[in-house]
Design goal:
Blueprint lengths: L5 H10 L3 E5 L3 H10 L3 E4 L3 H4 L11 H13 L5 E5 L9 H13 L5 E3 L7 H9 L4 E6 L5 H4 L9 H17 L3 E5 L3 H10 L4 E4 L7 E4 L1 H4 L17 H18 L13 H6 L2
Parallel strand pairs: 1-2, 1-8, 2-3, 3-4, 4-5, 5-6, 6-7, 7-8
Helix pairs in contact: 2-4, 5-6, 8-9
The protein binds 3-methyl-2-oxobutanoic acid (KIV).
Length: about 280
């Protein structure tokens, strides 16, 4: 199998084949995704909530993203790696934005970057593309805008915001993005957007008619404790299993039943005797 590229994703849309994407933040998970045959590993800034324990993604830095991108890149061979540009890394100035995108490619080893926003991001996207860096767009419920939105709310539910999302998608397409994440958007609107643009859409909470789907890996494996959004399907329920395993370890260490003989290294008894 060859490396998944932006051309492969475009071809998938043309052929009506679905694109699969999951987040990954570390080497072990990246290897798992590669073995399973996923198309794209997204080093999401959701690393902030999922791995680093922040309330939202706003505290994630460029250094955090480079660190986790490097780990993911080491775990894959054919999977495409897309790295998120964190909050403020593409908002301050165009030269800074290009340099930051470049770090994710040059230091991190990703093949592309993702950034949030619609028409207001066209200029910065064009500058990053000018540096030969492929860009994935992200519109709808963009988590870096949580304070602007006043919470994590489905976007595009009234006529004005629905029209705006269609215009955003078209503006990103014209700017040259290779794909667009649609997050927290009504399914019928996501279908409409997907039908109106030639670049693939990848949905999360955006219904079945996007060209692909993405989920946060911890959510879909059942590792996330507490509330998960309505759009998450748990394809496994690993948290209770991991909890039981850790409890069993504690019990066995306390009881002295672990480690057992099969977990121990042997030495000639005479050597032990000569120690005294
Ligand atoms: O950071 C992330 O995990 C994302 C996905 C939710 C698309 O951007």
């Amino acid at each position: 199998m060859a490396r998944v590229t932006t051309a492969v994703l475009k071809e998938k849309k043309q052929k009506g084949e679905k694109i699969t994407m999951l987040t990954a933040y570390d080497y072990a998970t990246a290897m798992l995704l590669e073995q399973a045959g996923i198309d794209v590993a997204l080093v999401g800034d959701s690393v902030g909530n999922v791995v680093l324990g922040f309330e939202n993604t706003l505290a994630v830095t460029m250094d955090d993203m480079v660190h986790h991108t490097k780990a993911v890149v080491r775990g894959v061979k054919n999977t495409m790696v897309v790295a998120d540009m964190p909050f403020l890394s593409y908002h301050v100035s165009i030269p800074d934005s290009v340099r930051n995108a470049g770090r994710l490619i040059q230091e991190g080893g990703a093949q592309a970057v993702k950034l949030e926003g619609g028409q207001e991001r066209v200029e910065v996207i064009k500058a990053i593309l000018d540096a030969e860096i492929p860009v994935m767009g992200h519109i709808g419920l963009t988590p870096q805008s949580v304070h602007q939105f006043g919470g994590f709310k489905v976007q595009g539910r009234d006529l004005e915001t629905a029209k705006r999302l269609i215009e955003d998608a078209k503006a990103l397409e014209r700017a040259g993005v290779f794909s667009i994440v649609l997050e927290g958007v009504p399914a019928a609107l996501a279908k409409r957007i997907t039908g109106e643009i030639t670049v693939p859409t990848i949905g999360i909470g955006a219904g079945p008619d996007c060209d692909g789907q993405v989920l946060v890996i911890n959510d879909m494996l059942g590792l996330t404790q507490g509330h998960v959004p309505k759009f998450v399907k748990k394809f496994a329920n690993l948290h209770p299993q991991m909890l039981e395993a850790v409890k069993a370890y504690i019990d066995e260490v306390n009881a002295g039943t672990f480690p057992a003989e099969e977990h121990c290294y042997s030495i000639n008894e005479e050597i032990i005797e000569k120690l005294y």
